[in-house]
Amino acid sequence: MNQTNTNQVGDLPQGLAIASMVTGILSLLGCSMFAAIPAIVCGHIGVRQADRGEASGRGMAMAGLIMGYISLVVTVIIIAIYAAFFILFATAGVSAVSMGNNGARLAAERMSRMNNTKMVAIALHDYHAAYKQLPPTFTVDDEGEVVSTWRLAIEPFMDSGIPTDGELTLETAGGIAPMPFQTVPITDPADTDLYVIVAENGMFSPNPNAGNKFRSVLDGLANTLMAIKIPGRPVDWRSTNQLTPDEAFAAIQSVDKSKPINLLMGDGAVEQVTEPFDRATFDALLSRDGGETVDMSFLSF
Asked: Are residue 201 and residue 57 in the same domain, yes or no?
């Protein structure tokens, strides 16, 4: 009887146990999920069949089952690591592209500001060529009422397309600033951030109807400040508001490197300021006839 039982057990099928063992080994050798899953499935079924006495090879099925789980866990960990690195590098790539785009945008804005300021310089020189003087900071009528400003005076020389009959006045000026005056980027089409600095010894007088001549600039046009463009300080282009020397110097002291201040020099050159500089240098730039020697090395070219 015992011999018969032994033969019966030995004759029981063990195909699933063998399959679990083989695929389990293959999964460990290749760390493959495709081999680990069959090893686990065959192992579970093989163990259950062996426990019910329907098959033999319980040890092989259990070994294949364990190897399948080990391989599956290792594979999942590897996939998680790869996914983490992919997300990390993808995020870094997006950040780099974003920074690059932002840098390109700021560079384009700086170039646009300089080009616009240069167009204003050309209009100022054309005005001087026509009238043998710079435009007055502001013009008043016989009753002392302000009727025009230096911006309105040079608008006809900009070919802006705004219909005019001679020089603009506060009553005839349109609400949209000519493009060379506009802020960059445009916040309000009526706004400008370009000012002249009003001073007795500067190129623009604080007195009404008074326009200085280039020949009065004894320090040299290249060394004398004519106007200043200050990003982030908008005003309606028809406004009579200009800057005092103190206001202009304070703006320079708070300059933002990403948005440089543009200095419009008397000769029409446009320079960038990215760092504050001292008051003595500023006063020397502002004065048209002080005889100072100005070190221009602080400017950004």
From this structure: no
